[in-house]
Amino acid sequence: MKAYRGRPGIFDREHQENKRADLEVVDLSLNFGGVMALSNITMSVGTGDLFALIGPNGAGKTSLLNCITGYYRPQKGAIYFNGEDITHVPTHHLIKRGIGRTFQNIELFPGMTVLSNMLLARHIHCRYGFGLASLFSPSVRDEEVRHRRILEELIDFLEIQPIRHQLVGSLPYGLRKRVELGRALALEPKILILDEPFAGMTLEEKEDMVRFLIELNEGWGQTMVLVEHDMSIVMAISSKIMVLNFGEKLAEGAPEEIQNNPDVTKAYLGDDTPL
Amino acid sequence: MRKLQFHPCGNYSETYEKEITLFETDFGRAAVLIGLIVLFAVVPFITGPYALYVVNIIGITSIAAIGLNILVGFTGQISLGHGAFVGVGAYAGAIMATTLSLPFWIAVPAAGLVTALVGMVFGVPSLRLKGLYLTIATLAGQFIIEYILVHWEGLTRGTMGIVLPSASLFGIVIEGDRSFFFVIFTALIIMTLAAANIMRTRYGRAFIAIRDNDRAAEGMGIPIFRYKLLAFAVSSFYAGFAGALLAYYMISISTEPFNLGLSVEYLAMIIIGGMGSIAGSIFGATFITVLNEVLRWLTDFLMNSGMLEGMQLNMAPLRELVFGAAIVLFILFEPRGLAEVWRIVRSSFRLWPFSY
Hints:
The complex is a heterodimer.
Chain A: E1 23-32, E2 35-45, E3 50-54, H1 61-68, E4 76-81, E5 84-85, H2 91-97, E6 99-101, H3 114-121, H4 130-135, H5 138-158, H6 173-186, E7 191-195, H7 203-220, E8 223-227, H8 231-237, E9 240-245, E10 248-253, H9 255-259, H10 262-269
Helix pairs in contact in A: 3-6, 5-6
Chain B: H1 16-19, H2 26-41, H3 43-46, H4 49-74, H5 82-98, H6 104-123, H7 131-151, H8 153-156, E1 162-163, E2 167-169, E3 172-174, H9 176-199, H10 202-212, H11 214-219, H12 224-250, E4 252-253, H13 260-273, H14 278-304, H15 318-333, H16 337-348
């Protein structure tokens, strides 16, 4: 067996087509009763982008992500992924098409080990049927072992070897975030959607996380959409930023443009001092 | 030769294959093998007819309890209709044996399949209902099925019941407790293995994910509703299979036993045995069946012995009383059931005799 040298096989997509991730959101509106959560949002994420979504609390960032990942149904507008209309596609189909995400409040399974959590993400990549599974035929066993091997590469990549057999419920918050990133990566998403991956982390944990995200994005061409409040991180790593405020798009552009945008400054600080 | 392993005091797996084996150690494998040899070579030959009858009922009940545990313990969909599904299986088996005159080896699995279909129909409410609300929907299923079994006289002969022809397998007629013992326990072992296998593949993982957090399960690409229906189907298949075996074993069946009481009894089995544990289902089925027999005997004894002058009638509900107390005590003191007790006993041997 070839020694593992820190190059997870699942990131190394053979065909460029497997990396393609063009997300288009056109004129999207979402309201809950009378509350306008999103109004006429248009955004576009291209392959290889590290797209950051920022805005004050309640701006509609998570609502937008929930629309993209099929948890919410927008009343108006459309979402296209690689040219296909996915506005009304259920979540579990979106996962198969390559949209993986993590959650703001960490939706891991606390009663399972880190490894079992990540194995769940391999569900869509398991090929065997129910009959063979009940017999646990050699082919099923080989496939389970293959997935286990893939996960071990991911575990190495994320440096969580010591905790792989620990229950997620017993882990500190920062590590849980990392495990959730690992689980999302195990889905082999074409576009990875991260809802506040740095929230509640210590500086050191944030630095680790930034390292992983940069390596994923620049080293492996992983397309990402990221919601984050830590401006120093957002400005440093993202290639494109969109600002939301009260469900409306305030600005979109490169980090420097956003930094110097008076509307954004006003929304965040209320006056004209630069960020 | 490979080094044989007793209980290790840590995780010493060297290959990924070893991590997913059913038996962690060679010791466990040998223990199960010895247990099976004792079960098949000794038990049926030393027990009297009554004891063998109880053992057989334990076997049949275990199959149905494993089914319920897949639905309730693993997938988290609480069902109060399992007794009725066993009834559907019994009637499906009986009708196939009499009206369609199918052979035993087809009738029993086919009854399981029919019940799986019925179970899926009654699992449809799980699309919208969760928790207690789904439980009430399955309770409705229990009453609907019971009503149909009694009133669709053209098919089920209503309250008259059905008398089955004797079963035969590969040309050998299966009659009497001893030959049924071998059939029932072979079936139990196959069904147990299948359940254990399902639980260590993606299907079992999906079931557990739906139980623990269905929102996140959806986010892992698991189609929730399809898997809930699958859980209902698998669970009902086990119930139907057990029901058909029961019908053949009892020779004649009627609708009375498949009431709500039976459904509750099955739930009690998996609570006492251990939710989310295959072995626990068998422990629970054994516990409840034995408790039932002991209490029946005790009630008879107390009511007729004349020891308690004038209080005999007060002894009649003894069975229900002890039954309820057993469930309450288990929930209080060992909520994870007999399976957990068994695990504790086993792991205390892990470092034996140097336990510190």
